[in-house]
Structure formats: C-alpha cells, structure tokens
Amino acid sequence: MSSTDFLGPRRSLVVHAAGGLVVLLVTTTLSVYKPRGLTRYGWRKSYGQQGDRK
C-alpha cells in the first residue's frame, strides 16, 4: 500500500471536519446574535396585546 491509497479517505476526513466546524460556527453565531430592542414577540409579552388569552 502506498500513501496515494489513503488520499481519498484523508481528503474526506478533512472535508467532513471542516463542514462540522462550519456548522458549529454558524450555530454559535446565531445563538449569540441578538437584535436590538424588543422583538415583536417580546413587545407583545411585555406590553400585552388585546385578545391574548393564555
């Protein structure tokens, strides 16, 4: 067996590891980002909206 026999699995490992890292970075960024001020949902919960019954 030569080192070229392992080129495919090595490349696949690098691609999958990079893809996993990208997924983790995206989910971390989305969980940290918060819009300024209240969202529409927060506004309704804070100030109430007529017709809400829960």
How would the blueprint of this fold be written?
Blueprint: H1 7-32, H2 40-47
Description of the structure:
This protein has 54 residues and is mostly helical. 63% of the residues lie in helices and 0% in strands. It is built from two helices and no strands. The longest helix has 26 residues, at 7-32. The radius of gyration is 23 Å and the shape is rod-shaped. It starts with 6 loop residues before the first helix and ends in a 7-residue tail after the last helix. The relative contact order is 0.07. The model has no long low-confidence stretch (mean pLDDT 83).
In short:
The chain is built from two helices and no strands.
Low-confidence stretches: none
Tally of extended strands? 0
Terminus-to-terminus distance: 68 Å
What does the largest sheet look like? none
Tally of helical runs: 2
Kindly provide the radius of gyration, computed on alpha-carbon positions and rounded to a whole number of angstroms: 23 Å
Q: How helix-rich are the residues, as a percent range?
A: 55-70%
Mean pLDDT over all positions: 83
The SS-based structural class is mainly alpha
Strand content: under 5%
**Oligomerization status of the protein chains:** single chain
Shape: rod-shaped
What is the N-to-C order of secondary-structure elements (H for helix, E for strand)? HH
